[in-house]
Each structure stands twice: as structure tokens, then as C-alpha cells.
Amino acid sequence: MESISSFAELTAHLTSVNCRKRLAVANAVDSHTLDAVLRAVDIGIIEAFLIGDVALIESPHLFEQEHSPFIHIIDIPDVLAATLEAVRMVKSGEADILMKGLVNTDVLLRAILDKEKGLLPAGNILTYNAALQIPSYHKLIFISDPVVIPSPTLVQRTAMIKYAIATAYKFGIVKPKVALIHATEIANPKIHYMQDYLDILQEWRNGEFGDVIIDGPLDIFLALDKDRGSIKNVPSPVLGDADILIFPNFECANCFYKGVSLFGHAEMGGLLQGTEKPVVLTSRSESVDSKFYSIAMACVLTT
Amino acid sequence: MESISSFAELTAHLTSVNCRKRLAVANAVDSHTLDAVLRAVDIGIIEAFLIGDVALIESPHLFEQEHSPFIHIIDIPDVLAATLEAVRMVKSGEADILMKGLVNTDVLLRAILDKEKGLLPAGNILTYNAALQIPSYHKLIFISDPVVIPSPTLVQRTAMIKYAIATAYKFGIVKPKVALIHATEIANPKIHYMQDYLDILQEWRNGEFGDVIIDGPLDIFLALDKDRGSIKNVPSPVLGDADILIFPNFECANCFYKGVSLFGHAEMGGLLQGTEKPVVLTSRSESVDSKFYSIAMACVLTT
Fold this sequence. Notes:
The structure is a homodimer.
Chain A: H1 7-17, E1 21-26, H2 31-42, E2 46-52, H3 60-67, E3 71-75, H4 79-92, E4 97-100, H5 105-113, E5 127-133, E6 141-144, H6 154-170, E7 177-181, H7 194-205, E8 213-218, H8 220-224, H9 226-231, E9 244-246, H10 250-264, E10 267-273, E11 279-280, H11 288-301
Parallel strand pairs in A: 1-2, 1-4, 2-3, 4-11, 6-9, 7-8, 7-9
Antiparallel strand pairs in A: 5-6, 5-10
Helix pairs in contact in A: 1-11, 2-11, 4-5
């Protein structure tokens, strides 16, 4: 498998594999979610179970007919009950991927985190990994964590890195390059997460992270731009070619991706990490494209 | 005065004012610094005192002749001595603006922070404010703090906001809109700086910050993009129209500006804040444009 370096390549890869994944959507009634799911059904990468309040879907029968036999509508008007049913389907193996529709994030998370019926194995760390496609960068960038963990501990950050590496492997990246991001390349000991960065580098040298290159601290210029990076004369095996950015905290990852989305025309897909099965949990304000890319990302992770 | 909404307007304003500021540069021997200074001399906004190791300047006499009488070269081969002399000139009033040339930042900062001979009045907080020009945003954005204070306290953050507002006023912005940035618009009490944000909003309502609008927490989308902001239905007087972004921490501000510089073609000028006189302190890897805009920003602040 060649490495996948854009969302177009991701979609092409999935259609060539020709194997539909079963997607359970909790309360798929909003148009962004429905449009994204339909697109994924129509190009042949998923079979969808839309669980929720059918009365809120415009022309549900027509909708089902047009796209059958790969759309199944399950009418459960109560949002909580619909959410629990979607989680149950994924947990039992009746579906491969869980997706959030018009459900409050807290409600879905509570269902996922339920110790008996949820999707997070004991001891696993719940975090988030997003794939960013920036037109002027030469490949996808995986970033962690823009949403879930405000200020990661060493254990959490180690898990974040491992999840991101596993995702990169699924995208066919043979030896992912990981940048531990900071404001500069100087390992200032006064910065509270710097010792964690140094510990992670030591663990990497010990072979803890597998076939991968990790370097840091690096700033955004050093991680993503060979030219600007070179001016500073910082020798780094990651210089200008990072696949994975691990951010100090979630505001930092969040502001970075929103800035490049808004002003650099970046597009994003993302998934919760740590769960038994992939979970698409995008915010309501995210675009149809973003939701569609997230579904596609989930499909490649279940292969 | 009309408000200045781009670096081109800033330059036009300064040339129309027709009043040269005196700029003292500590070891102005690198080409980026020299080119930026020369450009500012040539358009008539500064008179430059280049203090440093003349032997390192290519053709210093020719250089001086071509641009005289507004270039003065003061030969002090020792970098520390040159730095102290530049600071002394600004402190004594012989110059209006201090600029860093090829000097280690620590050396310059130590000279600025010296209690007797330095430029930071007792009790003032040293921080950084940058002006970002992003082609697809409708005006300049002032951001604080991408460089100096890793994790601001309430007192530091209050000072950062006041400096940024003072700068915005100098740019002719009558009622600046300030966004307190976070990953979302939800004031999660578990986030360590959230109480500071709420305290700042209360102080603002008490009239503490003057003629200004402050709102937060807001994410980057809500602060800078009306369309995306509107989807979330968050009513904010700042929505999509922020002049000033106050970031949670310096990595966050740093990654935001580097991301939009790299992928959104943003350009930046910036100054230390809290000093008696403006200080241009850009990193070696920054462009000639960036250094030039910083000088121009310093000029407008001394009027």
C-alpha cells in the first residue's frame, strides 16, 4: 500500500478496497451529518444505521428508498435511548463505527465511558486525533489533542503519541515523523511539560515507540517548513517534514487547526482515540466535508 | 485619524505625518536588520543609529554616504558594550526606539531589565504584543503574548490586555474588540485560567479597561469568522470582528501565528510591551518585512 497523503487519496483507497463498513449514527437528523453519511454510502464505503427521531428527517422513506439497501432507519425518538442503542450496536459488533449526530457531546461521551456498556476498555486513555489537509503542505498532518485532554500528563501524552502513530501506519506511512511542539526549539526546564518531552525522547531511543522518528521541542516553523527551519540552523530529522504534531496543550492544538482552517483553507477529519471501535465525534459547526473525512478516516482504521 | 487596518496603511500614515523617529540598533550587522532599517530610513520614518562592530558591515562608508544624513554608524566592536550603549541612548532620550540586531536575546533582555540603566519601570510587566496582517481578514489582529510569558497570571494578563488596547488606540481603533481565547466558548471551571477570564470580564463591566469590548471565552472561529461563528448561535459582541486576541498561554499564541504565517500568508510586526520606549525584538529567522513592520509599529506608538 502506498502512503495516503490527502483526503482524495484516502477516498480513492477506500473505494478501491470495496468493503463497506457498518456505521451506527446516534440521532442522525441534522443535514450536515446526513449529507456526510449519504456521501459515504453513495461512494460505497459504508452501510448506515440511522438511529434517532425519524420525524425530524425530511422525507425519511424517500431518503431510505433512494439509497437502499445501504441505509437503515431505526426510529427511536428519545435521544438518549437512540444514543445508547447506537453504542450497543457498535459494542455488540453489529456495527463497526459509531458516529455522533444531533446529540449533546456530554451525552454521547457518558455512553461511551460507561464501564459496562461503553466503548472504552479499562485502562485506555480517551483522547482525540485529527488529520489536517493543508493545501500548501505536501501531506496530511495528524495532530493531537485539540479537544479532549486540556493539559496531558506524561502517561496521557505517551498514549496520544502511540495512537497517532498507529493511525499513521494505517495511512501507509512507513516511518512517521513526530514533532513535540513548543514555542521554540529550546528545552527550557522552566516549562512544565519539558521534562515529559525529554522522557518521551528517551523512551523513543529505547525503542518504546517502534519504527518512528520523534524530535522536540520544535516550533511550528521547524516542524513544517524546511526553509524557515533552515535559517535557524537547527539540525532535526523531522525538519519541515512532520507527519504528527503533538501539542503542549489542547488550546494550542485547537487554535492551530482553527487558524489554518480559517486562513490556510485546511480541511480536517478526526476521531476519538482509545475506544474499542472508531468514534466520529465532530462538533455541530463542522462542515459536511469534515464529517465525511472523519467517516473515511474511521473506515481506514477498521481495516 | 482613520483607523489603520493594514501595514500599507500604517506606512502611508507614518510617511504622511512626516516626522522621523530616532532608532538605536544594537549590533545592526546582519542583512535582515540592515535591510529593514534602510527601508525605514529611505521612506522617511526613522533616523538610524547603528551601534556595533562596523567591521562586520559590508562597505560601511558607502552605506552611510548613500543614506546620509539619516544613518549614523557608531563603531563599538564589543557586542555587550554596543548593546549597553544602544540602551543608554534610548534611556537618555537621545533615541526614541531600541532595536535588536545580531545580539543574543538574553543579552538584550538583561540590559533592558537592569534596574538602574534598563528600560522597564519598576512594577511594569514585560510582555509582547504582535500585529498580524492576514490577507483574508478585514483588519489587523493584535495578539498577546506569543513569546515572553509562558502562562500568565491574572495580573500579567490584565497588563497584556491594557498594553494591547493602548496599541490599538494608537492605530486609531476607537473601540477595540478583545477576545479571550479558549478551545471553546464554554467557561469550563476546570480550566485553570477560566476564573481569570471571568474576573477580567467583571473588571471590564466595572469600567476598568476603558472604551473597549471584551468577551470570552471564545474560540478562534467565533472570534474571527462571522459565518462559522453564527452556526454555533453564540451571541457575542466580538463575533467575527476581533481586534485583539488574548491567548491562554504563549505556546497557543505562538502556534497560531506561525500556522497562519506559514499557511495563511500572514505577516507580522511586534514589540515588547511594558518598557519606557518601544523595543523591536524580532528573532533572527524573521523576515525583513517583519522587522520593518515592527519598526513602523514602534514609530506609531511613539507619536
